[in-house]
Design a protein that fits this description.
This protein has three domains: 55 residues, Aspartate Aminotransferase, domain 1; 84 residues, Arc Repressor Mutant, subunit A (Orthogonal Bundle), CATH 1.10.10.10; 52 residues, Herpes Virus-1, CATH 3.30.40. The chain is globular, with a radius of gyration of 20 Å. A three-stranded antiparallel β-sheet has the order 1-3-2. Strands 4-6-5 form a three-stranded antiparallel β-sheet. A two-stranded antiparallel ribbon has the order 7-8. 29% of the residues are buried. It has nine helices and ten strands. The longest helix has 16 residues. By secondary structure, the chain is α+β, with helices and mostly antiparallel strands. Its EC number is 2.3.2.27.
Length: 237
């Protein structure tokens, strides 16, 4: 496989280094970075070949159990690239960065988000759990700081006191979530990747990402479920 792949050059190494420091990058940023890396190292730059460029890096990352993945933001449907770790489940990976009770708070938050109707958990809901942590109780003030940290580290994102899983977290944890929340965690009926913020059909229970809902129903005056054809009762984003 490695023999077949294009050679890794300094332009690839620089791209990987920058992505590593960001963890995740929006598509347009990644395209700019691709161009920049090729120009700095004076290698041939093809504007439509970012995925091939990344593929070369991925072949060389294989033995390290890492991969640059392409995924979509649930907020706006934009493409992102994230460096993910395939060797460890993220919860083990997080274990090196957080204490036991911080991890427990994260798991609780994840439960609330995934079991919620719309893929969000309010800070009030989350903070209500702080005195029920098994490992070590946490003061609410302390818990608020920990939530801030999860947002900074791109495990959670927050809007007006409501928390959801960050795009990077979803890309990295998809397998973990699907296997640990069987029957609850859904794949989007349109793009087939994990859907946390979604609308769900009240009849057959399929779910769709909000950006996918918007795209799918764009041309339909009367929205019907793509799976069971029943009327789609939600507001179309």
């Amino acid at each position: 496989n490695i023999a077949m792949a294009a050679q890794m050059t300094d332009s690839h190494r620089r791209f990987l280094q920058v992505l590593m420091s960001h963890g995740i990058m929006e598509g347009s940023e990644a395209r700019k970075l691709h161009r920049h890396c090729c120009e700095i190292h004076k290698v041939y730059y093809a504007h439509d070949k970012l995925d091939d460029f990344i593929n070369t890096i991925n072949v060389h990352l294989q033995p390290l159990f890492m991969q640059i993945r392409k995924g979509t933001s649930e907020d706006d449907g934009r493409v992102h690239y994230a460096l993910v770790n395939l060797a460890e489940t993220e919860i083990t990976k997080m274990a090196s960065d957080y204490t036991e009770n911080e991890l427990e708070l994260f798991r609780k938050t994840m439960d609330l988000i995934i079991l919620s109707e719309n893929g969000f958990a309010s800070s009030t809901e989350i903070l209500n759990f702080t005195d029920q942590l098994k490992s070590k109780k946490m003061k609410k003030k302390e818990a608020e700081q920990v939530l801030k940290l999860f947002v900074e580290d791109k495990w959670l994102s927050e809007r007006n006191g409501e928390y959801t899983l960050h795009t990077r977290c979803i890309m990295e944890m998809e397998q973990y979530i699907l296997s640990n929340y069987q029957g609850v965690a859904r794949k989007c009926n349109i793009c087939h990747s994990l859907a946390i913020q979604s609308q769900v059909c009240e009849t057959c229970g399929i779910g769709m990402h909000l950006p996918c809902v918007g795209k799918y129903f764009k041309a339909q005056s009367e929205p019907h479920c793509p799976h069971c054809n029943d009327f789609w009762p939600h507001e179309i984003p």
